[in-house]
Every structure is written in C-alpha cells, then in structure tokens.
Amino acid sequence: MLQPCLVDTHAHLADASLRFELDAILRNAAAAGVRQILTVATTAADSADALDLASRHRGLFASVGIQPNLVAQSAPDDWNTITRLALQPRVRALGETGLDRYWDHTPFDQQRVFFDRHIELAEQLDLPLVIHCRNCESEIVAQLSRLGRPVRGVLHSFTGTAADAEEFLALGLHISFAGMVTFPGRKNDPLREVARRIPDDRLLIETDSPYLSPHPLRGRFPNEPARLIHTAERIAALRDLAPTELAQITTRNAQRLFALDPADSLADPPDPLAPSSA
C-alpha cells in the first residue's frame, strides 16, 4: 500500500455518481493513502455543492468555476455566484476553466471571455487556476501569455505533447496526470515520456473522478480517489522512484500550490471525545 500520503488534485465529488456514496468513497480514499482531495466544480450550482462538501469534511477543499463546455448553459447571475463563493476559506482554486475545441457546446469566443474572467478573478484573489485544455493548447498559451508574468495553476489531466508541456511549464504552470498515463499500448507511450520528464517541483497527479479510471480498472465507472494509487505507482515506475518518493513529491507540490494544511486530512478526523481546547 502506498504511504505516507497522496493528494488527489482533481475530483468531481459533487457529481451524483459519487456524492451519494461519499462517506464510503472517503473511507476508501483514506485506506488507499489519499489524505486530501480538491473537489473541482464545473457550474455555479456545482461550485456551491463542492464548497458545501469541503465545508463538511476534513481533507476536502473546493475549486469553483464554470467549465468551458458548460459556459453556454450558464445563467446571467452565475458568474456573480462564482465570485461570491470564491471568497470562502475552503475554496483553494478557480476552475475548472480553460478552452475546448473537441466538443462544440459553447462558442469559442464565449469560452475565451469566461476564461479571461477566471484569470482576472484568480489574480484579484491570489488563487491558482485549474485549467481544462482539449485540442487547443496554442490558444491556452496565447491567452495566458498576455498576462506577461508567471501563472499560478495547473494544466489538469494533461494529454498534450512534450512541446506543449514545455510551453505550459514556461508559463509557470504545474502539469497533472490522470488515468490515461496508465493505459496500455504504444499510443500512450509519448504521454508516459512526458510524465517521466516533468520537473519534480511541477508534477501533480489526479483521478478526474468519476471519469478516467486507471488501468487495471479502465472502463469501471465511477472512478474514485482511492484509485489514484494506480496512477501514482505508474508514474513512480516511469521516473525510477519508489512510490513513497513520488507521493512525497506530488503531495508537497499540491499542498504548496493550493495552500493545503497537511494536518487537515481525511485520515485524521477530530476525536469527538477529546477535551475541548476552549
């Protein structure tokens, strides 16, 4: 079993496939060595739910935002909701935001407008960005480059090329890998090579639960944070590290980027019988 601790930097725990079994999912996560989870939102309503979960469970933290494919569905007041929620202490990031050319659910210009809104709010509140990118790496780089300074955040569930990774790293971003890095076959060898080469201080891991279950559980829905162990072990092997070393590297990076207190952990619930410090 992987020890001492892992951080799942991207899970959608407010999704209906997970939230109604959340107590069991969190027990499974803690048993697998996952100590903290960033539960990431995709809509204004989802953001409120993610914050509610993070407010009620130790070891959970929220990222609030409107995912690019869902921007077209947002109501006029939804952005005001995001700006209000982003002020809450359990919110540690903005997103997921970004751009997507794979799906055609939101006009691309509208995606750009909302990406800029997230970028500006992140600057105002000193929060990192959780960035979604699908088939539009160059557009993401161009939009972030206009800031003219390093960007705090993570390119989540990375699937790009080595050249793409270099550009994101040059912007200051972290790179996070999900279950795809574990999928067998030559098709995914280039992604594994990128995961091998990311600098230690920029490497993160995630499940993207309930999606992207890693090998050997590929296709088994829903994915859950406990399965992060498979991605962690695969990347550790790629980098010639012991699993404990990989855990230490990625946990340190996650806690630094998202300002996570190591003592605020799934595995260490408060003792209801302990004397009060008041």
Which stretches of 5+ consecutive residues score pLDDT under 50? 269-278
Number of DSSP helical runs: 10
What is the highest CATH level, the class?
A: Alpha Beta
**What fold name goes in the CATH topology slot?**
TIM Barrel
- SS elements, strand count: 8
What sequence of helices (H) and strands (E) makes up the elements?
Answer: EHHEHEHEHEHEHEHEHH
Side by side, the strands of the main sheet go 1-2-3-4-5-6-7-8
Strand content bin: 15-25%
The Rg value, from CA coordinates, equals 18 Å
Counting copies of identical and different chains, the oligomeric state is single chain
The percent range for helix content is 25-40%
Largest sheet: 8 strands, parallel
Second-tier CATH architecture:
Alpha-Beta Barrel
Label the structural class.
Answer: alpha/beta
Question: Briefly, what is this?
Answer:
This protein is α/β, with parallel strands linked by helices. It is 38% helix and 16% strand. Strands 1-2-3-4-5-6-7-8 form an eight-stranded parallel sheet.
Walk me through the structure:
The protein is of the alpha/beta class and 278 residues long. The protein has one domain: Metal-dependent hydrolases (TIM Barrel, Alpha-Beta Barrel), CATH 3.20.20. It is 38% helix and 16% strand. The chain has 10 helices and 8 strands. The chain has helices at residues 16-19, 22-31, 44-56, 78-85, 108-125, 137-145, 162-170, 189-197, 228-238, 243-257, and strands at 6-11, 34-40, 60-64, 91-100, 129-134, 153-155, 174-177, 203-205. An 8-stranded parallel beta sheet has the order 1-2-3-4-5-6-7-8. Helix 8 links the parallel strand 7 and strand 8. Helix 3 packs parallel to helix 4 and helix 9 (228-238) crosses helix 10. It is globular. The model is unreliable at 269-278 (pLDDT under 50).
